[in-house]
Specification:
With 229 residues, the chain is α/β, with parallel strands linked by helices. It is 39% helix and 17% strand.
Length: 229
């Protein structure tokens, strides 16, 4: 197990690479469909205080802020947080350096909580989600997105890990059943990204529409939502 400082350094060199990926034709499609799924499950409302746990460079944070929310972005990497802060100038956005396993907030601090592609770097996933529930108000929604072990993207990323890819070496892929089993109450599960990295963008859009229409559980982007009782 790596300590918190090493975990943070793991992501410190990635802000530019991460943001550049989403400017490529296929990366832009990935962002579009992932962002739509997050908003569909989170349903942000004006005036809500929302925690974005593992906010990274704020790629999806801006979408949430556009609804007139107040977002607290937490991440373990300061370079990631600085990039997010730069993007979100003019919005009600604050950043906190911290670990999802020990959130520095009192119980019931947030109307809703979202965490996007952070859980796959946490071995103690159940503990992390318990923390997300703890800081959410009763009746509030908790949305967690992670990388789906049932997707062909996972196989490719595992192959890259074997070649020494620094991030994918640390990645824990989980299935829809594994993600839902981390919480003892029923949740809603959906997936997105039913196309592949090398697909033509037009073909990719068609594949995505088909995968979502069929409700396939093999999309690379696995997202679940629970409501705190």
């Amino acid at each position: 197990m790596i300590d918190k400082r090493k975990k943070g350094r793991l992501f410190d060199e990635w802000p530019d690479k991460y943001d550049r990926w989403f400017t490529t034709p296929i990366g832009a499609l990935v962002k579009k469909y992932e962002g739509e799924l997050i908003l569909d499950l989170l349903k942000p409302e004006p005036g809500e205080i929302i925690l974005d746990a593992g906010c990274g460079t704020g790629v999806f944070t801006l979408d949430i802020l556009s609804f007139g929310t107040h977002v607290i972005g937490l991440d373990i990497s300061m370079p990631m947080l600085l990039r997010a802060r730069e993007k979100a100038r003019g919005y009600r956005f604050q950043t906190v350096l911290g670990d999802m396993l020990s959130l520095p907030f009192p119980e019931g601090s947030f109307d809703k909580v979202v965490s996007v592609t952070a859980l796959e770097f946490i071995e103690e996933a159940k503990g992390a989600i318990q923390e997300l529930f703890r800081v959410t108000k009763k009746g509030g929604g908790i949305v967690v997105a992670t990388l789906n072990s049932l997707s062909p993207w996972a196989s490719r990323r595992k192959a890259e890990a074997e070649k020494g890819h620094t991030l994918f070496e640390r990645t824990i892929f989980r299935s829809p059943d594994e993600l839902l089993s981390l919480v003892p109450i029923d949740g809603i599960m959906k997936t997105a990204i039913h196309f592949q990295k090398d697909d033509d963008p037009e073909t990719a859009a068609e594949l995505e529409r088909g995968g979502q229409k069929k409700g396939l559980n093999t999309g690379a982007f696995l997202t679940a939502r629970w409501e705190k009782p």
